[in-house]
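User: Just a sanity check before I run the rest of the batch. Below are the structure tokens for the first item. I only need the designed sequence back.
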């Protein structure tokens, strides 16, 4: 489902829940990290993309005019109530700590939306390593921006969301997830230097490849504690090597200092230093559409995460082994675990025309090996967080200019439904682009109808 279709659905769910239409609808995507794992908190490089799975919030000013933000969840989880007249602190239910942390950060910056009725609906799988928490944080911050009309600088917004996760959810995460959820761009990966916070968009324009995400559908409980201990081990390694962070260590530094550090710390350092290198090489490979090289780097990343960093698990390893046994002949260039680890997802670089066959094989072999059903899907690189309704000129205008600027026959897909104003109007979203200029959208429709551009998604664009 595109974020527009989802937004329309969530607007309807809001109306069913609260008995009136929402004034604002915002969406923030999850992400998959193509390569560069456990490098962000070592000041290194990461190469994620936003995916077509979103946290969406529909909202209106609270019906009773009070000072409480009420967040209901479409899946029926316990609602969250946040009273803005008292200091905002972590509490129950636990999932509310992500929005609570973000709201506290916004209030501290004078961004006060007053009481709100909110409905949340997320299609980012929980605990799947696809940043369901970061998308929820970014979604909350985007809602507060839309309601107050006060826009945060994107870097400040990412840091505010990260702080919420540190202080309200107790996870000492890096900066990758929040950055990509804010700064993702359709059809691009984001090469992020986590030290300087400089970003570079790396286009993925080759219609012959796709990224295939497979969810092991397991999450091992130790994940959070292990994450914190990895971070501490990296800091210990940097200290022993006499560098501010592992980003600054040379490839042979751990080997040269082997006598001074225990084997575990040595292997952690070896992973991080190697992974930073691999990430930069992979970005080069993607720029050159050198898919076999990128695929090899993905496998190397997985082995390093499995053996040196020890954050994989048998289920993730099983999926990577299956992908490897399918091989380039069967359409798989490379595959690796993605995200923090201990369950969650793998990401594979595959040939587009082999996707159906690969999905079938991965699902069947994984079930045979583990007894578990995997969830497998492709995603194009998606755009970052956006105000769908209530944010002024907003989305259609933005989406159509994106489409016009980078119209690429073969990769025009379902997301370009963004230009389908009719679809939105039908669902009462006519206010999305007040006075919007739809020339670019019309041009795209024309190109599709004359065959100059082809819809590349799973469903055709015109219906
Ligand atoms: C989690 C964290 C990120 C990053 C990854 C590992 O997703 O939130 O900051 O450290 O793990 O690469």
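Assistant: Here's the designed sequence for the first item:
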């Amino acid at each position: 489902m595109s974020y527009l279709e989802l937004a329309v659905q969530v607007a309807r769910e809001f109306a069913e829940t609260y008995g009136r239409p929402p004034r604002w609808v915002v969406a923030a995507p999850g992400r998959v990290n193509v390569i560069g794992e456990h490098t962000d908190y070592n000041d290194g490089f990461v190469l994620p993309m936003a995916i077509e799975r979103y946290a969406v919030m529909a909202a209106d000013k609270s019906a009773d005019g009070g000072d409480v933000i009420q967040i209901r969840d479409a899946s029926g989880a316990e609602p969250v109530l946040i009273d803005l007249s008292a200091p905002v602190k972590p509490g129950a239910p636990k999932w509310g700590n992500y929005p609570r942390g973000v709201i506290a950060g916004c209030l501290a910056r004078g961004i006060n939306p007053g009481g709100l009725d909110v409905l949340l609906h997320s299609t980012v799988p929980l605990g799947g390593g696809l940043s369901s928490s970061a998308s929820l944080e970014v979604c909350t911050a985007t809602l507060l921006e839309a309601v107050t009309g006060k826009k945060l600088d994107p870097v400040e917004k990412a840091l505010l969301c990260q702080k919420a996760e540190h202080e309200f959810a107790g996870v000492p995460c890096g900066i990758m997830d929040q950055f990509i959820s804010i700064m993702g761009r359709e059809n691009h990966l984001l090469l992020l230097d986590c030290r300087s916070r400089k970003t570079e968009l790396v286009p993925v324009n080759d219609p012959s490849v796709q990224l295939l995400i497979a969810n092991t559908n397991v999450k091992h409980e130790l994940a959070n504690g292990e994450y914190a201990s990895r971070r501490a081990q990296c800091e210990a390694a940097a200290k022993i090597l006499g560098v501010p962070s592992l980003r600054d260590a040379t490839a042979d530094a751990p080997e040269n200092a082997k006598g001074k550090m225990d084997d575990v710390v040595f292997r952690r350092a070896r992973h991080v230093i190697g992974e930073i290198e691999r990430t930069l090489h992979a970005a080069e490979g993607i720029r050159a559409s050198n898919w076999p090289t990128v695929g090899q780097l993905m496998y190397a990343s997985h082995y390093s995460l499995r053996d040196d960093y020890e954050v994989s698990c048998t289920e993730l390893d099983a999926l990577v082994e299956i992908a490897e046994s399918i091989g380039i002949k069967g359409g798989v260039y490379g595959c690796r675990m993605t995200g923090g680890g201990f369950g969650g997802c793998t990401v594979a670089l595959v040939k587009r025309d082999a996707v159906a066959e690969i999905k079938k094989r991965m699902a069947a072999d994984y079930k045979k090996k583990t007894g578990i059903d995997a969830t497998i899907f492709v995603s194009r690189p998606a755009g970052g967080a956006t105000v769908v309704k209530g944010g002024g000129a907003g989305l259609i205008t933005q989406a159509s200019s994106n489409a016009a600027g980078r119209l690429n026959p073969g990769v025009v897909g379902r997301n370009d439904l963004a230009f389908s104003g009719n679809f939105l109007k039908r669902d009462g979203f006519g206010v999305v682009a007040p006075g919007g200029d739809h020339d670019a959208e019309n041009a795209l429709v024309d190109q599709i109808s004359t065959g100059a551009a082809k819809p590349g998604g799973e469903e055709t664009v015109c219906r």
